[in-house]
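Hey there, shall we discuss this one?
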Amino acid sequence: MGIRAVGAYLPEKIVSNADLEEILITRDDWIRENIGVETRRVAADDEWTSDLGARALLDACARAGITPADVDLVICGTYTPDNMAPPTAMLVIDKAGATGATGFDVNSGACPGSVFALDVGAKYVASGAFRRVAVVMADVSTKTLDWKDVGPAVIFGDGAACYLLEPCAPGTGLGPTLLRSDPKRYRAVWVAREERRARDGRPRRSAFGDNFAQLSGPAVREFAVGEVPGFVEELLAGCGLTPSDVDLFALHQANLYIVHGIMEALGVPRDRTVTNVQKYGNTSGASVPLVLREALDNGRLSPGDLVVLAAFGSGVSMGATLVRWCGEDDFGPGDRSSARYAGVVGAA
C-alpha cells in the first residue's frame, strides 16, 4: 500500500514570538535559540479538531483527483477529540462529505501518531477490507494550554494533515515499521488532569477544562536525540540499509535543534530532511505528514525516493517506517471511484 496524496490544513491565525512576549514571561531570542520556533498557527475559538481534519481530508482528495465520497475508511489520529464520544472521525466524515465511509479515532499518543496511526491505516488496506483509507492527523494542541505555563506555550501549534492510502505496485509504498513504547517515562510529555488556580484564587482552565499540556524539555531532548537515531538505524539495518541510503528523513518537528541533533547522530547532512517547526511550531500528530507535504510542494520528494518517517513523543513512544515513494503510475489504472469490497489488494 502507498501514500497516494498528502493533504494539509493550517489555521489562519499566526502567533509570533513577539505576540507571546505580551502574555508570557519569555523572549523571542530565547525561543529562537533554544527551540527554533518563530511563529505558530492557532485555531480560532470556534475551530476544533474536526474542522481542521475535514479541510485536510478535502485537500488530500483534491490532490488525488477524487471526491471525499470515494473514501472507504477514515481514521482520525488525535488526542484532542471534539467530544469524548462519538469519534471525531464521524464529524470529519460529515463535514468533508465522505458519504458512506466508515470511521473511528485512534488516540495514538499525539506526536507519535504520525507513524502509529499510519500503521493502523496501512494494515486495513493490506487486509483487503478497504481500498482507500484516509488517515487524518489533527490536533488543536493550543486548546490544551495554560497560557501562563511557558514551556508548552512556546512550542505547540495547531494543524492537520491527511495520508490518503491505496494499494500500489509491488516494491513501492510503505515497507517495514517499528513501534516502541517506554511507559516509565509517561510524564515526560503528557496532558495532565488537574485543578489550577490563578493568584486571586479563581480557577484557571484550558479549552478542555482541567486538562493541561505539560512537558519536560530536557527529558524530551535526551530521549529524542539519545534513542531515536539508533531506533531508525535498527529499522534500516533490518532491510540491509544504512542512513546514507535514505533520500529523505521526515522527522517529527518537536524542536528544530532536536531534528538537527537526530540528523547529526545519524551521520547524514541536514539537506536530507525538511523542517517547518520554525513556521508552524510542534503540530503533534500532523507533524510528519506536513513535512512530507512541504517536501512534495518544494520538489524535494520524487517517485522512487527512499523515505524514513520517524515520530516520537508522549508515552514515551516512537515509531518509524520506511517508504519507497510512489508515483501516480504505481497505483495502476482501473476504477478510481469508491471500491468497497474485499480482496482488492490481492487482485491488484
Notes: The CA atoms of residues 227 and 307 lie 19 Å apart. Residues 334-348 have pLDDT under 50 and may be disordered. The longest helix spans residues 217-237.
